[in-house]
Amino acid sequence: MKKVVAVFMTLAFMFGFAALAAASDNPLVDGEKAFHKEISGLIPADKLKTIDDLYKKWEEVIAGKSKAILLDVRTHPEFDAFHVEGSSHIHAGHMYTIPKKIKDAEAEIWVFCRTDHRAKYVGGFLYKYGYKNVYVVVKDAQGVDGGIVGWVKKGFPVVNYFFGYADKNGVHYSQPPLKERNCDNYIREFESQRGETCGK
Known about the structure:
Layout: H1 2-22, H2 27-40, E1 48-49, H3 51-62, E2 69-72, H4 76-81, E3 88-89, H5 98-101, E4 109-112, H6 117-129, E5 134-137, H7 147-153, E6 158-160, E7 164-167, E8 170-173
Parallel strand pairs: 1-5, 2-3, 2-4, 4-5
Antiparallel strand pairs: 6-7, 7-8
């Protein structure tokens, strides 16, 4: 009986502690939200763009009409699973490395992540670093998510090192490794990261 009471009390304590940690009045969560709002506020309103804007820019980049850097700031596993062809990649947690990779403060940089939370952080920090031409992909007025979630919902194409291309019409397998277009213009966080094979 003592064991049952001890287990019950332990579980009650654990659930109670978890509930306190998840409570909406958690000062740490509130602090993160306030800081996110502050850092996002550094992004000029005219630099907040939608998935449709990103798609138009991507078409220009792939066609060689724009040197814009399409910067995916998701994690490495997220990026490796699939990504926008020709996009650059630096994990949001390593945004401090961006000035070593992109040395021109006037470079046109389009930042996106899975939805838009991390992209807003990175975009705000890039303005703080001194970049002048940073666009951040966010949710649109109709509620379509920014980032790769909105991209896929729209049926826009993604690529994977192993399977090739996928879009609203299905998977279009190509023999690995995938040879991406725009590879002369993209940036990868580290050498020999997947997706480095260029198509000529």
